[in-house]
Amino acid sequence: MILIADSGSTKTDWRLIDDNKQIQQCTTQGFNPYFQAGVDLSLSIRTELFPAFPILPSHSTLLIYFYGAGCGSDSKKQLVRSAFLDVFPNALIEVNTDMLGAARATCGYHAGIVAILGTGANTCFYDGKEITESTPSLGYVLGDEGSGAHLGKTFVQAYLNKEMPTELSNRFFERYQLGKDELLDALYKQPNPNRFLASFSKFIYQNLKEQFVIDLVADCFNQFFDKHICKYKQHQEVKLSAVGSVAFYYSNILRAVAANKGVNIDTIIETPIAGLTLYHLELS
């Protein structure tokens, strides 16, 4: 039996492939080892995953492929592995980055540049087998250009600095009832500020008819290409594939900015879990 997970800071998509190649699916809360402890993942497995996949607790042999945000270092991979072993002591566990998951899901065995644009942002060059190059992922404070958190941060900055049209500012306040004090408290005193900022992406998307919003999103994507994609020497030679909610819902603006940079976009998908399922079915 194979258990596949694609985990970001906001949610985790799961696929369970049983011994008859039948596939089950579910979604649980997100997990990022940079912001959460292993006990949080173990608890999520027991309280969210087990009810969705009742066969799991009684299955003696299990092969687990976990692709996750924040799993780039050996220490973070071990944290995730230990959390799984706490629940599945006899499982065979492979922990990889969400970046490799996105590459396998979109490129398969072909070379390309791959980007994740969701709550956070990350990019790599994939040679068809493994990741050979990547740009630094500095998180929502120092980086994550083009991500949901970056869009939200840029929007909130404009809102607090009174740099947006009054009607749009009023619409934002009517929707969220958030002033300066509430926003700063959420950003500096409450947990998961990156998720908080990314949560405003939905409002931004719903107001794309506003030229101010279009320009804001385009500016964020321009920063994303300048700081990440265009630094790959092959950026005009191979195609770019993108994964994540921001890439998917803002695809028209993303493609327009890419064209201006001379970058050819191939695939844009919201989540890599379907592609990963096919990838591992072929290997099984």
Quick synopsis:
This protein has 284 residues and is of the alpha/beta class. The chain has helices at 38-52, 74-87, 98-107, 139-142, 148-160, 166-176, 180-188, 193-198, 201-206, 211-227, 245-249, 251-260, 273-283; strands spanning 2-7, 11-17, 23-29, 63-68, 92-97, 112-117, 121-126, 131-134, 240-243, 265-269. The strands form two sheets. A five-stranded mixed β-sheet has the order 3-2-1-4-5, with helices on both faces. A five-stranded mixed β-sheet has the order 8-7-6-9-10, with helices on both faces.
**What's the CATH architecture name of the domain at 2-101 and 273-283?**
2-Layer Sandwich
Low-confidence parts: none
Form type: globular
Oligomer: single chain
What is the CATH topology assignment of the domain at 2-101 and 273-283?
Nucleotidyltransferase, domain 5
* Largest sheet strand order: 3-2-1-4-5
SS-based class: alpha/beta
Number of helices: 13
Distance between the termini: 10 Å
Radius of gyration: 19 Å
CATH class of the domain at 2-101 and 273-283: Alpha Beta
> What is the fourth-level CATH superfamily of the domain at 2-101 and 273-283?
ATPase, nucleotide binding domain
Could you give the order of the helices and strands?
A: EEEHEHEHEEEHHHHHHHEHHEH
Strand % is: 15-25%
- Report the sheet with the most strands, covering strand number, pairing sense and barrel closure: 5 strands, mixed
> What does the average pLDDT come to?
92
Quantity of strands, as a count: 10
Helix fraction bin = 40-55%
